[in-house]
Design goal:
- This protein is α/β, with parallel strands linked by helices.
- The protein folds into three domains: 189 residues, Rossmann fold, CATH 3.40.50; 106 residues, 3-Layer(aba) Sandwich (Cobalt-precorrin-4 Transmethylase, domain 1), CATH 3.40.1010; 73 residues, 4-hydroxy-3-methylbut-2-enyl diphosphate reductase, catalytic domain (Cobalt-precorrin-4 Transmethylase, domain 1, 3-Layer(aba) Sandwich).
- It is 37% helix and 22% strand.
- It has 18 helices and 20 strands.
- The strands form four sheets. It has a five-stranded mixed beta barrel, surrounded by four helices. A five-stranded parallel beta sheet has the order 18-17-19-9-20, sandwiched between helices.
- Strand 10, helix 10 and strand 11 form a beta-alpha-beta unit.
- It is elongated and about 85 Å long.
- The termini are far apart.
- Its cofactor is [4Fe-4S] cluster.
């Protein structure tokens, strides 16, 4: 069994810094490298003594931007010097652990210089994107080599409160206090380091319906002056929505927030006839981004209702797709969320009943509800073809395979994404520890301690860049062997609506 000394070596330049870090760690291997890393021999000796240890460089730094204040913590995602740039890829994971300690944390570039930086030099460095400056980190990373490494610095002075400012003393006290508080997070980071396998579930990420919906908004933004209004989130992913907002999309909850005669996009989840009528009354120029597979379910709801059926909609209350489908025939549609609800259902004519499904459900769970309905209502009719989306099924099949081989499964997707949440549930039913993360910053580093095989997937509304960023962060904890587990090849493509086809 390893000891803390085996797991991590912490390198601090000055005696006060090393003392503060050591107190926060409760002991361990803390090496004082000296200013400008002049005592590099000590570092070499410690690294030889602990050949498997990860290394954290911890000390104080000067802020280059005024929105940092003394005591704030900077986790370097890269360290720049005249000799080149070191990338610190696990920065998002360490930063999240530090935030859990109650520290104010920023991720960004640190630049190493051989002298104290004053203005206007600091402003020039900040203009290149650096947020803090020190005099040792790059040199120390050179010594550390290829083993897992992190650089974390607490702010002692800022552009408006320089080292010669009367507030330097309290700033120094705040910085040293933050260094002490880092200890538990540094231990957790070290416990998560090590080589591992990464298994990518394939298919993952965008489905054809999401690609179509996003492209509709992108084309409108390219060809028209913003704003372009979108009712609800175009797809359930905060990254996608945020990037479209930056380009001029305006997301609204209801149509009364859209000016008359403006262009509005209906989201991929579909809308009820009442919403379409409201758009006509306001003379809105509607571009419909409803997924064709959702439109199919709407058509089936209308058909069953015209036949006089009571329509059971298997789905989750409050989901926008469910609200739209319920709106097709509200007087004849009953929402069923679980098999437990079936026994209490009463209908006008048990011989005239049918069922539909929300497209993003877990197939095994939805089939359990459908089975209960068939047992209660033997005359039950179903849709002409499966309602659950091909992409939902494919992603669940793939994550099921990955989960069987993984110590932990991470699913990239937003909390309001039904299909992403279902992927987590499918993985958990296979016996794997599984978590939904909106982005790499939401990963709890404790999940990775001892996890030598990590499974990765992404919901149908989550962009592939989220998975790429997670793999990149994991590579900062040690070597990663990335392989794919592909269970299906997708070739589905949906045509764009005529309103944007030739714009």
């Amino acid at each position: 069994m390893s000891t803390p000394d085996d797991d991590m070596v912490v390198v601090s330049p000055l005696m006060l810094e090393a003392s503060s870090v050591r107190r926060g760690l409760g002991g361990g291997c803390v090496v004082r490298a000296g200013p400008h890393a002049r005592r590099s021999g000590r570092v070499d000796a410690a690294l030889r003594k602990h050949p498997r240890a990860s290394v954290a460089v911890a000390g104080v730094a000067g802020a280059l931007v005024d929105d940092l204040r003394p005591g704030d913590v900077v986790v370097a995602d890269e360290v720049r010097s005249a000799q080149g740039t070191h990338h610190c890829r696990s920065a998002p994971l360490l930063a999240s652990a530090l935030r859990k300690q109650g520290l104010r944390v920023r991720i960004g570039p640190i630049v190493e210089t051989d002298h104290v930086v004053w203005q206007p030099e600091g402003a020039r460095l900040a203009a290149d994107g650096a947020i803090a400056v020190d005099m040792e980190s790059a040199r120390l990373l050179d010594l550390i080599g290829s083993r897992p490494a992190a650089v974390v610095r607490s702010v002692v002075d800022t552009p408006s409160r320089s080292l010669l400012h009367p507030a330097t003393v309290p700033g120094g006290i705040a910085a040293l206090s933050s260094l002490r508080a880092m200890g538990p997070a540094l231990h957790r980071w070290a416990a998560a380091t090590g080589d591992r396998k990464v298994l990518l579930a394939g298919p993952r990420s965008f489905c054809a319906g999401v690609e179509r919906a996003v492209e509709i908004v992108e084309r409108l933004l390219r060809r028209h002056d913003p704003p372009i209004y979108v009712r609800k989130q175009i797809v359930h992913n905060s990254r996608v929505v945020g990037e479209l907002e930056q380009r001029g999309a305006v997301f609204v909850d209801e149509l009364d927030e859209v000016p008359e005669n403006a262009t509005v996009v209906f989201s991929a989840h579909g809308v009820s006839p009442a919403v379409r009528d409201a758009a006509k009354q306001r003379n809105l120029d509607v571009v419909d981004a409803t997924c064709p597979l959702v439109s199919k379910v709407h058509g089936e709801a209308r058909r069953f209702a015209r036949d006089g059926d009571t329509v059971f909609l298997i789905g989750h209350a409050g989901h926008e797709e469910v609200e739209g489908t319920l709106g097709e025939a509200p007087e004849r549609t009953v929402l069923v969320q679980s098999a437990d609800e079936v026994a209490d259902i009463e209908v006008e004519n048990p011989e005239r009943v049918s069922y539909l499904m929300q497209t993003t459900l877990a197939l095994d769970e939805a089939e359990g509800v459908a089975k209960a309905l068939r047992e209660r209502f033997p005359a039950l009719r179903g849709p002409g073809s499966e309602d659950i989306c091909y992409a939902t099924t494919n992603r669940q099949d793939a994550v099921r395979v990955v989960a069987r081989e993984s110590d932990v499964v991470l699913v990239a997707g937003s909390a309001n994404s039904s299909n992403s949440r279902r992927l987590v549930e499918v993985a958990q039913r296979e016996g794997a520890e599984a978590h939904l993360v909106d982005n790499v910053h939401e990963i709890d580093i404790d999940w990775l301690a001892g996890a030598r095989t990590v499974g990765l997937s992404a919901g149908a509304s989550a962009p592939t860049v989220l998975v790429d960023e997670i793999v990149d962060a994991l590579s900062g904890l040690g070597a990663v062997d990335v392989s794919e587990r592909t269970t299906a090849t997708e070739t589905v493509n949906f045509s764009l609506p005529k309103e944007v086809r030739h714009r």
